[in-house]
Design a protein that fits this description.
6 strands, 36% helix, disordered N terminus
Length: 162
């Protein structure tokens, strides 16, 4: 009897201190309703099972791609009261974009490769919104190659859930 009270008290304390995660809340209710209520939420959340088929269609994934893989590789977030999905593909970034006009990776690359016309993404990171070049041993932005959405993510990587 005393043990059960302690267990219940521990559970209530845990919920009270840590709360229910947004992921749990989003899973408990419809994702669309969750995002409509939340508005903007930049925290990336795992894909609930009920969104596997819509994600498959949005990203043009064949039936050969397992549901498990889609759930593992796809995230959602809320923007403007709508749910948006991103699938980590080859070199696709779902996290916020890097719009910094300085790059330590590009700088290091240019020191070793003066006057290189292009700095590869392995040096800059795939989250950069710029292409880079080396002018002498100095890294410089060449041009912006991707757009950033209203919340700071690479717009091309995110698709709105209809």
């Amino acid at each position: 009897m005393k043990f059960r009270r302690i267990c219940r008290l521990s559970l209530l304390l845990t919920i009270g201190v840590f709360g229910l995660s947004p992921f749990t809340a989003a899973r408990a209710e419809n994702v669309r309703a969750y995002c409509a209520k939340k508005g903007d939420d930049d925290h990336l959340k795992g894909l609930p099972a009920e969104l596997v088929q819509p994600a498959r269609q949005i990203f043009g994934l064949s039936s050969d791609v397992s549901d498990r893989f889609i759930r593992t590789s796809t995230r959602y977030r809320c923007m403007g009261g709508k749910a948006w999905l991103c699938n980590y593909g080859a070199n696709l970034v779902c996290d916020k974009a890097n719009a910094s006009r300085t790059s330590s990776g590009a700088s290091a690359f240019c020191k070793d490769n003066p006057d290189a016309e292009n700095v590869p993404m392995f040096a800059t990171g795939h989250d950069t919104v710029y292409s880079w070049k080396c002018v002498g041993r100095e890294a410089r932005v060449d041009e912006q190659v991707t757009t950033i959405d209203a919340r700071g993510f690479i717009a091309e990587n995110w698709k709105q859930l209809q």
